[in-house]
Amino acid sequence: MIVFEAVSFSYRDDGPPAVSGVDVSISEGERVALVGPNGSGKSTIALLSNGILLPSQGRVLVDGHDTADESALDVVRATVGLVLQNPDNQIVGATVEEDVAFGPENLALPSEEIRRRVAAAIEAVGLQGLERREPHTLSEGQKQRLAIAGALAMQPSYLVMDEPTAMLDPAGRESVLAAMERFHRQRRTIVHITHDASEIALCDRVIGLREGKVVYDEDAESLLKDAETMQTLDVQPSPALEVARMLAAGGVDVPLEADASRLVDALWV
Ligand SMILES: Nc1ncnc2c1ncn2[C@@H]1O[C@H](COP(=O)(O)OP(=O)(O)O)[C@@H](O)[C@H]1O
Ligand SMILES: [Mg+2]
Q1: Is the dihedral angle over the CA atoms 230, 186, 79, 25 positive or is it negative?
Q2: β strands within the chain, DSSP E
Q3: How far does the centroid of ligand 1 lie from the alpha carbon of residue 242, in Å?
């Protein structure tokens, strides 16, 4: 479980808090969408969840370990995998393969296990064939998938992903969502920062932030039915959801599906 207890954080001593009074728990196996307008504190929450930032007030516990406890930091970092909003900030290796191997090597795993994990993670995000490429020669979408592979290779219990599909083309997005799905099916936990209704529809729970405070915590279905709250949380309705809303407004009995193929299935029967 990741527990935020009355957490506040300010980037500057004299500045306003980026996150304030956040009390929230995320349990094993959950798939949580973290949403909110730009500047509402989503990335700050991500950075607090594995000890990259430490609370100015309150505390963050990862499976019982306080992130402010230096002796627990290695465990915390191995337990909570983080994919940053800008993948350029996360690339450390000279090649794709070395980059993905960096984390597992720090866990001092046997080299056979490292090779296995690296190959599996590269395949999970669809970067096979690019193992020897220099990361800076990759497209933005490929870099994003490289960052995700690096996190997957650590086999963390929790994966916190900060707008992982924002820079991807449709094919890249599909492969990232498929990798997330496989990860989640292993009873692992995902915190997915996104503005996209169809991605929120894949989650069980939605936590909404505004101005650094949690203002919403409901299941995904409830949010997608609530156009006004979606707007205050800056969640973009997907084209499918807009079509479903129009049909419903016109008297058609249709579920408010945000995912196009699920909407088609619902209309087809
Ligand atoms: N490195 C930083 N230094 C100073 N202020 C920051 C920094 N990063 C974010 N902030 C501020 O903290 C607040 C929350 O930002 P952030 O967590 O990035 O929000 P979001 O990810 O929801 O867009 C914003 O007011 C933002 O300007
Ligand atoms: Mg952000």
Answers
A1: positive
A2: 2-9, 19-26, 31-35, 57-62, 65-66, 80-83, 158-162, 189-193, 205-210, 213-219
A3: 31
**Cα–ligand 2 centroid distance for 125 (angstroms):** 22
Q: Under a CB-based contact definition with an 8 Å cutoff, are residues 222 and 235 in contact?
A: no
Domain ranges of the chain: 2-236, 237-269
Q: Which of 59-73, 131-145, 211-225 bottoms out in mean pLDDT, i.e. has the lowest? A: 131-145
Strand partners, 81: 159
Nearest to 233 by CA among 206, 255, 257: 206
Cβ-contact 144, 176 below 8 angstroms: yes
Dist. CA 120–CA 122, nearest whole Å: 6
At 33, which amino acid appears? A
Domain 2-236 has CATH 3.40.50.300: yes
- For the chain, the distance separating the N- and C-terminal CA atoms, rounded to the nearest angstrom, is 40
If pLDDT is split at 50, 70 and 90, which confidence band does 82 have? very high
Say how far apart CA 214 and CA 196 lie, in whole Å: 19
* Bigger pLDDT: 240 vs 118: 118
Distance CA 39, CA 42 (A): 8
Tell me how far the alpha carbon of residue 58 lies from the centroid of ligand 2, in angstroms: 21
> Letter for the amino acid at 111?
S
Report the C-alpha gap between 61 and 3 in whole angstroms: 5
What residues flank ion ligand 2 with Cβ within 5 A? Answer: 42-43, 85
